[in-house]
Task: inverse folding
C-alpha cells in the first residue's frame, strides 16, 4: 500500500509542477523562438538529471523512511542516505532542475518564471514548515544533520553521514 501511495503522491505533487503546469504554459503559446538552436537540447540533460534525482529521493523516502513525499504521509524515519547525504532538499533541487531543463528545451520564459516561483515557495515551505516539523519529530538527529548537510547547496558528506 505504501508503494501505491508513493506513486500517487508523485503524480499529484511533482507531476503537477513539472508536467501539468509547464504543459499549460507551453500550450498557451508561451514558447520562445529559435527551436533549432543546439543549446536547447541541453535542456533534455537537465530534465533527465532532475527526474533521476527525484525518483531516487522518492525511492529513499519509500525504502528507508517508510513514507511518501506528501506532508500528510511523511517518512517515519529521518532519511539521510542517497542524495540526502549531500543536500537536505534534493527533491526540490531536482524539481527546479527539471523546470530549468524544460525552460531551456522549450525556450520558455514562462516555465523559467515558474521555476523561480517554485524555488521561492519551496524555500518558504522548508523554512516555515518542514524544518520546524523535522526538528520536533527527530530532535537531535535532525539538528546534527542540519549542521553537516546544507539546505540547498550540495557538499561532500561528512564521515558520520
Result:
Amino acid at each position: 500500500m505504501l508503494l501505491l501511495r508513493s506513486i500517487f503522491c508523485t503524480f499529484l505533487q511533482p507531476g503537477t509542477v513539472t508536467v501539468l503546469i509547464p504543459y499549460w504554459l507551453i500550450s498557451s503559446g508561451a514558447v520562445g523562438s529559435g527551436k533549432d538552436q543546439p543549446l536547447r537540447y541541453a535542456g533534455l540533460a537537465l530534465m533527465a538529471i532532475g527526474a533521476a534525482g527525484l525518483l531516487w529521493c522518492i525511492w529513499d523516502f519509500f525504502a528507508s523512511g517508510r513514507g511518501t513525499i506528501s506532508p500528510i504521509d511523511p517518512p517515519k524515519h529521518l532519511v539521510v542516505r542517497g542524495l540526502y547525504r549531500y543536500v537536505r532538499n534534493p527533491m526540490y533541487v531536482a524539481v527546479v532542475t527539471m523546470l530549468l531543463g524544460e525552460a531551456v528545451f522549450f525556450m520558455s520564459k514562462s516555465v523559467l518564471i515558474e521555476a523561480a516561483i517554485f524555488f521561492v515557495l519551496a524555500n518558504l515551505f522548508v523554512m516555515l514548515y518542514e524544518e520546524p516539523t523535522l526538528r520536533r519529530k527527530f530532535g537531535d538527529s535532525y539538528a546534527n544533520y542540519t549542521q553537516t548537510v546544507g539546505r540547498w547547496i550540495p557538499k561532500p558528506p561528512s564521515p558520520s553521514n
In short: The chain has a mean pLDDT of 85.
